[in-house]
Amino acid sequence: MPVGEAPTQGWGDGLRLIATLRWSAGIARGSPRPCIPTTLPKLGRRVIVSTDPSDQPRYSIAAVSKLTGVSCHTLRVWERRYGFPVPCRTPSGHRRYPPRQVLLIAEVTQRTRDGVGVAQAIAEARRGSPVAPEPGRLPALGHDDTIPRLIDALVRAELEAAEARFGRACAGLGPAEVATRVIGPAITEAGERLFCGSCSLCQERLAVMFLLRKLSALLDEAQRANVRPVGRVLSLSLQGDRHEGGSLMLCLAAELAGWRAVSLGADLPTREIQHAIDAWSPAAVGISLTLSRNIRKRFDELARLRGAPVFVGGRSVVNYQGLARRCGLEVILGPAIPNVARFLDRLRDRPGEGDGTRAPSSPRAGSGRE
Ligand code: B12
């Protein structure tokens, strides 16, 4: 893709902003990627990205939250607790973050996902140098070049090489680790390459499809090993959301925890969830939320479901926790593995559940609005 010619979609641009800033701030790990768009659409407007990324506070807390995936609440807590990030204030007192702060927040988030503690990651961001993960916490394999080399092979469609690299990356890892330390980060890497223009859509698709197949294979294996499941858990993503990765992760998490995951795939109309509950009496329904489009409408629909507790998680849930809870949904934050297992363990201990029998047949509590 020529420099400056951006795809038109919203959040891809956010990621590209971060990639751009990483490049222009000169703090990228490894070699800079060939993506230096000069204009970016931001929340519907075109804005010029300065060559000095530390200037011009322009992003509201909500925009930063959407760009980085860190909730507004967490940004305020970090500010209070660690003195980071340090936004400017408008005359009316609203926070405004300069692009460089957005980059640093994204760096901190990435490092925490890699197993570094928040305080440490913030100290590192301030110093501009990486630190080792806390002892006992597993880093993503992305610290070395295993994941990038796997994606290199995939975007070149060298499938035998990709198989070999995937096999090496997974050596000695259990299924949960393969999913969380290899497949998840590799899908993210492929997505980042697309959005910063260093690979094309067909290359990203090839890589993502390869990795989703690996995730499905792990799921098959986990299902075969799980011979006496505790109860059924439905897994899906909602109508309008075609992302399957989160719901497959959810299935894997459930199977590894001893439950039978019934995968209903992506883009499922809510009325079908009700049919599935009526037909198969699951102990719970798990929903992976990647997009926040129409989220209020969807939550209102979910509030009317009867017959099984509904839990939601995924990247879009973070800013809609209150609304979700008011709609009677259970909110699970963080990665599907291990958090789904923790939730299901608690569910097993509730009377009348965990054996596939139904929860009380009442609608979910108040479908309030945010
Ligand atoms: C692959 C992909 C696609 C593929 C999906 C193919 C498929 N068969 O699944 C396709 C091409 C269809 C696609 C389309 C679009 N995509 Co897309 N896509 C991605 C990509 C690259 C990977 C998503 C993925 O599978 N990740 C792997 C899974 C395992 O990770 P995950 O979903 O984050 O799940 C983790 C956690 O969130 C959590 N989790 C997930 N679910 C649950 C549930 C529970 C209960 C719990 C506890 C935890 C949990 O656990 C997982 C880790 O263990 C991401 C970029 C990225 N870096 O992630 C963009 C991304 C998700 N897509 C995005 C967008 C904007 C789109 C499009 C709108 C683009 C467009 N303009 O067309 C469309 C929307 C289409 C639609 N209607 O759904 C944005 C979403 C931003 C947002 N939240 O608003 C992203 C983040 C890219 C970006 N940075 O801009 N996409």
UniProtKB/TrEMBL annotation:
<dbReference type="Pfam" id="PF13411">
    <property type="entry name" value="MerR_1"/>
</dbReference>
<feature type="domain" description="HTH merR-type">
    <location>
        <begin position="58"/>
        <end position="128"/>
    </location>
</feature>
<dbReference type="GO" id="GO:0031419">
    <property type="term" value="F:cobalamin binding"/>
</dbReference>
<dbReference type="GO" id="GO:0003700">
    <property type="term" value="F:DNA-binding transcription factor activity"/>
</dbReference>
<dbReference type="InterPro" id="IPR006158">
    <property type="entry name" value="Cobalamin-bd"/>
</dbReference>
<keyword id="KW-0804">Transcription</keyword>
<feature type="region of interest" description="Disordered">
    <location>
        <begin position="348"/>
        <end position="370"/>
    </location>
</feature>
<dbReference type="InterPro" id="IPR009061">
    <property type="entry name" value="DNA-bd_dom_put_sf"/>
</dbReference>
<dbReference type="InterPro" id="IPR047057">
    <property type="entry name" value="MerR_fam"/>
</dbReference>
<dbReference type="InterPro" id="IPR036594">
    <property type="entry name" value="Meth_synthase_dom"/>
</dbReference>
<dbReference type="InterPro" id="IPR000551">
    <property type="entry name" value="MerR-type_HTH_dom"/>
</dbReference>
<feature type="domain" description="B12-binding">
    <location>
        <begin position="230"/>
        <end position="354"/>
    </location>
</feature>
<dbReference type="GO" id="GO:0003677">
    <property type="term" value="F:DNA binding"/>
</dbReference>
<keyword id="KW-0238">DNA-binding</keyword>
<dbReference type="GO" id="GO:0046872">
    <property type="term" value="F:metal ion binding"/>
</dbReference>
<dbReference type="InterPro" id="IPR036724">
    <property type="entry name" value="Cobalamin-bd_sf"/>
</dbReference>
<protein>
    <submittedName>
        <fullName>MerR family transcriptional regulator</fullName>
    </submittedName>
</protein>
<keyword id="KW-0805">Transcription regulation</keyword>
